[in-house]
Amino acid sequence: MVRFIVNKFLFMVLSLFLLVTATFVLMNAVPGSPLQSEKATSPQIQKNLEAYYGLDKPLHEQYLQYLKNLVKLDLGISMKKRFYSVNKIISDSFGYSLKLGIVSVITSVLAGCTLGIIAALYHRKFLDNLAMVLAVIGLAIPSMVMAPLLQYVFAVKIRLFEVAGLNGPLDYVLPTIALSSVSIAFIARLIRSTMLEVLHADFIRTAKAKGLPGHLVVWRHALRNSMLPVVTYLGYLIANVITGSVIIERIFAIPGLGKFFVQSVVDRDYPLIMGITVFYAVILMVCRFLADIAYALVDPRMRLIEKKVGN
Fold first, then answer.
1. With contact defined as beta carbons under 8 Å apart, do 77 and 83 qualify?
2. N or C: more exposed end of the chain, with fewer CB within 10 A?
3. DSSP secondary structure string, 156-185?
4. 77, β-bridge pairs
5. Angle at 146 between CA 141 and CA 151, to 5 degrees
6. First to last CA, the chain
């Protein structure tokens, strides 16, 4: 188990290093200067700005300096928001994205597992058909389409919620549904198919033959084995929530990190682009790392493989 965790951690560090390197190279491969603007500046001011941001140095020196600052957790100073550090921009705005992401992930897992379990237990019955219809609708409509539909129906027509903004707990309802609808549908179908397979396994028949009550067979044996694919999917789920929240935050006017990420690309704000990219990458890789560990803890077969490799 220790070897498995160490290998995953080293792979995560290597992946992060390659991502930082690739982002830095691709960003600097774009022609033109990021300090160019509509307002004309004198050559001397342009040189001073390039010296201040280190753009007057050779590319390899800029890269090494960025790596040194990154080790110190210093993401630099924004080029467009003068005197604002990238660290401060991220710390001030990420709270909104984090709250929305946590609520969306919890909603996706709970709602998706519930629908999948109901569909499996009532296979080929009305509840199964209803759950799968909802899942197909969730998969068919992307979040960028779901969000305006929810705003129009529940905010404009029915007026149950506000159109945009986060002024209270109820304002999280529509963004959460829009952001997690695809994930709920995917998890529901995943749980249904896995549980149907598990319920016909030999160890389930053995548990029933021993006289174990039906609800204990489902919760103690079938559900645990059916959750393994969901645990594996958690890393991808968090990735989808974070990348999808950029669009949802724009539609619902949420002052999260997605707004600054889009604006940084438009403004060619190199430090902010790099900072948010690295920040997102660390979150995604850490979540994927934790998901792999959780999968190894839940699935006893991983521990058996580790023992065989050790022997």
1. yes
2. C
3. IIS-SS-SS--SSGGGGHHHHHHHHHHHHH
4. 85
5. 160
6. 13
pLDDT digits (tens, 9 = 90+) for 83-95: 688 888 888 888 8
Q: What is the pTM of this model?
A: 0.73
Return the closest-CA partner of residue 120 out of 269, 240, 222: 222
pLDDT tens digits for 11-64?
888 988 898 888 888 877 776 666 665 455 667 777 777 777 777 788 888 888
DSSP string of the chain?
-HHHHHHHHHHHHHHHHHHHHHHHHHHHHSSS-TT--SS---HHHHHHHHHHTTTTS-HHHHHHHHHHHHHTT---B-SSSTT-BHHHHHHHHHHHHHHHHHHHHHHHHHHHHHHHHHHHHTTTSHHHHHHHHHHHHHHHS-HHHHHHHHIIIIIIIS-SS-SS--SSGGGGHHHHHHHHHHHHHHHHHHHHHHHHHHHTSHHHHHHHHTT--HHHIIIIIIHHHHTHHHHHHHHHHHHHHHHHHHHHHHHTT--SHHHHHHHHHHHT-HHHHHHHHHHHHHHHHHHHHHHHHHHHHH-HHHHHHHHHHH-
Place of tokens 């033109």: 32
> Largest alpha-carbon pair distance within the chain?
86
Taking the C-alpha atoms of residue 143 and residue 154, their distance in angstroms, rounded to an integer, is 16
Nearest to 3 by CA among 11, 244, 126, 29: 11
* Both tokens assigned to 298: 């839940």
Cα–Cα distance, 91 to 87 (Å, whole number): 6
